[in-house]
Amino acid sequence: MCTVDTMNGQWQGGGEVLVGFRYAARSAIEGTFWMLGPFTSSTTVVSDTNSLNSTIDFVTGGERIVDGDTVSKYFLNAHEQRLHRHSEIWNLEINWLQQQMVEDPETRFGFMAIAGFRWFHFREATQFESPYADTGIDQYNGSNVRIYDISVNNNLIGTQIGSRIPYYWRPNLRLYATPKI
Question: Nearest Cα to 112, choosing from 21, 179, 171?
Answer without folding.
Answer: 179
